[in-house]
Design a protein that fits this description.
Helix content of chain C: over 70%
Family (chain C): Belongs to the cytochrome c oxidase subunit 3 family.
Number of strands of chain C: 0
Oligomer: heterotrimer
Shape of chain C: elongated
Order of helices and strands of chain C: HHHHHHH
Organism (chain C): Desulfuromonas versatilis
Distance between the termini of chain B: 57 Å
Membrane topology (chain C): Multi-pass membrane protein
Distance between the termini of chain C: 57 Å
Strand content of chain C: under 5%
Number of helices of chain B: 3
Subcellular location (chain C): Cell membrane; Membrane
Protein name (chain C): Cytochrome oxidase subunit III
Number of strands of chain B: 0
Structural class of chain B: mainly alpha
Order of helices and strands of chain B: HHH
Shape of chain B: flat
Radius of gyration of chain C: 19 Å
Helix content of chain B: over 70%
Structural class of chain C: mainly alpha
Chains: A mainly alpha, B mainly alpha, C mainly alpha
Strand content of chain B: under 5%
Chain lengths: ~550, ~100, ~200
């Protein structure tokens, strides 16, 4: 960090001040300060996100024309597998909870740190080790895994590529996720400041709380599932092998018992970010605070009952198809409750269109599109037609990227000025947002249409009729890519060279805006006592 | 302060009584398994195992003396597991 | 080191949350057990008959007794009787070792009879029996791993108690290790009837 000469004019650097016990990199990778761990997570996650984006751009480039464009089919299989593994396990699952949860959760509840700071550091280390192993699987054993991120048997048991190491890496990453969840639940229960009742928790905290429970209760199932794949590969127990009495569909059950709830691990924290941002930029208390808080818990609970909707065409019983389809429609209700409440919060608000709000608004729109196309997949009759097509790929990118991704971007633009005490260039941020929004829709809308027309997902080649839509999607990916890189360029420049900001640049009423930017090591100079709700701008003296 | 929260001391005799009960239940479960009851066998075995684990959780693991938070959490975890097992049978039973 | 935040109830709550994840981890295996039992009831009975009830019953007694010992060790420490605490912990750790030795002989006998994952003998058996033994090895193997971890954890606590770092005023490390050990017992309480006593 070569900007030492700027420090004379800059405000107190808070927790970013160089430490006495360790220096340089060690003061980060051995720190138990939740903010430092949060930033460790943040920058590792951003690195992997950009790696994943690059892979995504390469996949789109390969699909620009039918047949071979830039890589061989086997490389293509490895690329989409790695794109999936990185984006799911290294970016989107830890994304908001581990990075922004760590950065702001203790501050928002008025605590000095999380309940188990050393466990928190261990989570990051497990994340780093798991990530290293996942990347290591590319260059070791029988070559890069080619199963897709879902590791479906029997292929994952039979393929000679290095699935074992990749599965073990995901197992380790799951452990990291569990420890973060465990830490957050305990922190929220035990470490709230005086006056911080459950009814005064920011909605971001409510969403993290619900997420943490899903992390704790669902992730172990992924652990055992992947452990079983490992055992199958190493010992040949035959638990999923039909010739020896096993049932491959049971793998899908176990896998989706975790991986569907994991969808809510991914999106709930994003919804929390949006719930926190919208009231601030609409200058109005959150409409339906209780409904939004309760709907987070409801989504977490109902989300654990619907895994079977990934398996409608697997040969599962008709009864199961019926039950899981019905329940899938039920999950739409709490999600819709949130969307309506956000819109109602905006209604007649005094809206300032700053970058965090722009990303938040695009979250609402894109997530709504993603959610509604999800219903097409949730209805068995239509699912049979579009199952395993690019429609599905378009759908989950709308929910995951258009949802969680946008929320992650919104969170960056909302909280990074607090963490670094410096503001990025808002005009460039707005331009980057525009590029991302346009590129996103061109890319994934084309995918949905071409999927409707019947183009299967994960295929290397396609018939010439699909060429035009694929090219449109690829062009969209370029616009999106430029927007993403511009956004990060602007943010990184802002964190190191931007104008110093005050304690409360956006006019928020939650606790993190009462402490200095960057916050001091133990978050507050004086232990806070909470006297008003998180969106009570009048009581906070902002309105 | 927090020191007051872990004041509860369970007597040795309570633990020994629970241990004896567990031994008796183990003997029962072995004995019952030698009688053919058809599909009922598995349910009896599971029932006894549940009682045994209930004893371990309540006394050895101090759950009987814990507050509402821990009890509710345990309940949530067990319900989740039950749902995961139960809902799988929507498929398995009707296939 | 940084100032360590001491929250007794919080530490215990965290441990319980971790136990839930362990419960769900084994839960995945019990889901498979339930499904395959439903599909192959007769084969499961036949294969289960191959397991040695004596080994299973002895290990059940060993684990129940070790659970008693670790539970009593907490009471002993609370009452300030460090010597008794150490004795009881030693009993628990010894039980863990006995359990593992037992398991070793049990597995050796099975493997000697050609019953191990991917063995030629197993491949000749009916599909349901093969799956039973697959599950048996995975489940008891994972459980055995937990016995090893639990034993190591208790050995660490033993050292802590002896050196006086864990004492009557601050024994959450002992209590949490004890909780972990009870979980190992809990899982076995279900494994024993489901695998050894199935009829």
């Amino acid at each position: 960090m070569a900007e030492t000469h700027l420090q004379a004019t800059a405000p107190d650097r808070g927790f970013l001040t160089p430490r006495e016990d360790y220096s340089g990199l060690f003061s980060w990778i051995f720190s138990t300060d939740h903010k430092r761990i949060g930033l460790l997570y943040f920058w590792s996650i951003v690195t992997f996100f950009l790696t994943g984006v690059t892979l995504g751009l390469l996949i789109r480039l390969e699909l620009f024309l039918p047949g071979k464009t830039i890589v061989e089919a086997q490389t293509y299989n490895a690329m989409f597998t790695l794109h999936g593994v990185i984006m799911i396990f290294l970016f989107i699952i830890p994304g908001i909870p581990a990075a922004f949860g760590n950065l702001v959760l203790p501050i928002q509840i008025g605590a000095k740190d999380v309940a188990f700071p050393r466990l928190n550091l261990l989570s990051w280390w497990l994340y780093a080790i798991g990530a290293a192993m996942a990347l290591g699987s590319l260059f070791s054993g029988g070559g890069a895994p080619d199963t897709g991120w879902t590791f479906y048997v029997p292929f994952s048991v039979q393929t000679t590529t290095n699935v074992s190491l990749a599965a073990f890496a995901v197992f380790i990453l799951g452990f990291s996720s569990i420890l973060t969840g465990l830490n957050f639940i305990t922190t929220i229960h035990r470490m709230r400041a005086p006056g911080m009742s459950w009814g005064r928790l920011p909605l971001f905290i409510w969403s993290l709380y619900a997420t943490a429970w899903v992390q704790v209760l669902a992730t172990p199932i992924l652990g055992i599932t992947l452990a079983l794949v490992l055992v199958e590969r190493l010992l040949g127990t035959g638990l999923f092998d039909p010739t020896r009495g096993g049932d491959p569909i049971m793998f899908q059950h176990l896998f989706w018992i975790y991986s569907h709830p994991a969808v809510y691990i991914m999106v709930l924290p994003g919804m929390g970010v949006i719930s926190d941002i919208i009231p601030v930029f609409a200058r109005k208390p959150a409409f339906g605070y209780k409904a939004i808080a309760v709907s987070s818990i409801a989504i977490a609970a109902a989300g654990s009952l619907v895994w079977g909707h990934h398996m409608f065409t697997s040969g599962m019983s008709d009864m199961a198809v019926l039950v899981f389809s019905l329940l899938t429609f039920v999950v739409a209700i709490p999600s819709a409750v949130k969307v309506f409440n956000w819109v109602a919060t905006l209604y007649k608000g005094s809206i300032s269109l700053d970058p965090p709000l722009l990303f938040a608004l695009s979250f609402i729109l894109l997530f709504a599109i993603g959610g509604l196309t999800g219903l097409v997949l949730g209805a068995p009759a239509t699912d049979v037609h579009v199952h395993d097509t690019h429609f599905v790929v378009g759908h989950f990118h709308y929910t995951m990227f258009g949802g969680t991704g946008m929320a992650f971007f919104a969170a960056m633009h909302y909280w990074l000025p607090k963490i670094y005490g410096r503001m990025y260039n808002k005009r460039i941020a707005t331009i980057a947002w525009g590029l991302i929004f346009v590129g996103f829709n061109v890319l994934y809308l084309s995918m949905k249409v071409v999927g409707m027309q019947g183009m299967p997902r994960r295929y290397y080649d396609y018939i010439p009729e699909f060429t035009r839509l694929n090219q449109l999607a690829t062009v969209g990916s370029w616009i999106l890519g430029i927007g993403v890189f511009l956004m990060f360029f602007n943010l990184i420049r802002g964190t190191f060279r931007g104008q110093p900001v005050g304690d409360n640049p956006w006019g928020g009423a939650t606790l993190e805006w009462t402490t200095s930017s960057p916050p001091p090591t133990e978050n507050f100079e004086v232990d806070p006592v909470v006297t008003h709700g998180p969106y009570d701008f009048k009581a906070a003296g902002i309105l | 302060m927090a020191e007051q929260e872990h004041g509860h001391i369970v007597g040795y005799s309570t633990f020994v009584a629970v241990w004896l009960a567990l031994l008796v239940l183990t003997a029962i479960t072995v004995a019952v398994s030698r009688i053919h009851l058809g599909p009922l066998n598995i349910w009896v075995a599971l029932g006894i195992a549940s009682v045994k684990s209930g004893l371990v959780i309540a006394f050895f693991m101090h759950m009987k003396y814990e507050g509402r938070l821990l009890r509710l959490s345990l309940f949530a975890a067990l319900v989740t597991l039950a749902i995961f097992i139960g809902f799988t049978f929507f498929d398995v039973l009707y296939r | 080191m940084s100032e360590v935040h001491k929250d007794y109830a919080g530490a215990k709550f965290g441990m319980w949350l971790f136990l839930f994840t362990e419960l769900l981890l084994f839960g995945g295996l019990f889901i498979l057990y339930g499904v395959y039992l439903h599909r192959y009831p007769e084969e499961f009975v036949k294969a289960g008959g191959e397991l040695n009830v004596v080994f299973g019953a002895v290990n059940t007694l060993v684990l129940l007794t070790s659970s008693l010992a670790v539970a009593m060790s907490i009471t002993a420490l609370q009452k300030g009787n460090r010597r008794l605490t150490l004795v009881l912990l030693a009993v628990t750790i010894a039980s863990a070792l006995i359990f593992l030795v037992n398991k070793y002989f049990e597995w050796s006998a099975k493997i000697h009879h050609g019953l191990y994952p991917d063995s030629p003998h197993l491949k000749e058996l009916a599909p349901g029996e093969s799956v039973f033994f697959g599950l048996y090895y995975v489940t008891t193997g994972l459980h055995g791993l937990h016995v090893v971890i639990g034993g190591a954890l208790l050995a660490w606590v033993f050292v802590q108690v002896r050196s006086g770092r864990v004492h009557a005023e601050d024994f959450v490390a002992l209590e949490n290790s004890g909780l972990y050990w009870h979980l190992v017992d809990l899982i076995w309480i279900f494994i024993f009837p489901l695998y050894y006593l199935i009829l």
